[in-house]
Amino acid sequence: KIIKPDPPADVSLSPVPNQRKKLLLQWKPPATWPNPQLFLLKYIIRYWQAGSNRPSMIEINNLTNYTLSGLRSRAVYFVQVAAKDFVDNGQPSEWSPTISARL
What we know:
Blueprint: E1 9-16, E2 19-28, E3 41-49, E4 56-61, E5 65-68, E6 76-85, E7 99-102
Antiparallel strand pairs: 1-2, 2-5, 3-4, 3-6, 6-7
C-alpha cells in the first residue's frame, strides 16, 4: 500500500508584527492522518512572489508553522503546503489550496 497523506488543513498566512519582511505560515496535520504525534510527518512549503514563476521550496520536519523571512516589502506572496511521511515512505500529499498575503 502506497502511503499518501491528505494535504495539510487550515493553512494560514499572516504578517509578523513589527517584522516587515516576514510572514508566519501555520497549518494543521491532515485530519485523516492517524496519530501525528506517533506517525510523524514532514512538510514541504512552496511559495512565490506575485509575478514570479519560480517558486521556492522548503522542507521541514514535524512542525506546523514556519516563518518565511527575507521577503520583499509591499509584495504579495502565494503559499502552498504538502505533507509527507517522515521517513519518506510513499508520496507527498497534493498541495493545499493556494493562499496569499501582502506584506
